[in-house]
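Figure 6 in text form: structure in, sequence out.
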């Protein structure tokens, strides 16, 4: 089942880089905190450059570990501090 959520990014962590990049993060929505995982190279690179507390809209499906596997991602708001 494909689902979409909007929330704030927390706890960005790279799990593996080789042979395939794998990044996890927590998405805090109004209702709950969702554990998310990204394996697409372009999305993972974008995510690793984001500061925490950025607002994201994500679209994906749940795996057997109940993690949201991200297929599409849109950065809604970033917090840039000087």
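Output sequence:
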């Amino acid at each position: 089942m494909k689902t979409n959520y909007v929330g704030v990014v927390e706890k960005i962590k790279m799990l593996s880089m080789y042979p395939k990049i794998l990044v996890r993060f927590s998405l805090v929505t109004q209702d709950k905190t969702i554990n998310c995982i990204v394996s697409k190279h372009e999305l993972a690179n974008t995510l690793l450059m984001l500061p925490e507390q950025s607002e994201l809209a994500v679209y994906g499906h749940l795996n057997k570990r109940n993690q949201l596997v991200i297929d599409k991602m849109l950065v809604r708001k970033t917090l840039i501090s000087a």
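Caption detail: The mean pLDDT is 89.
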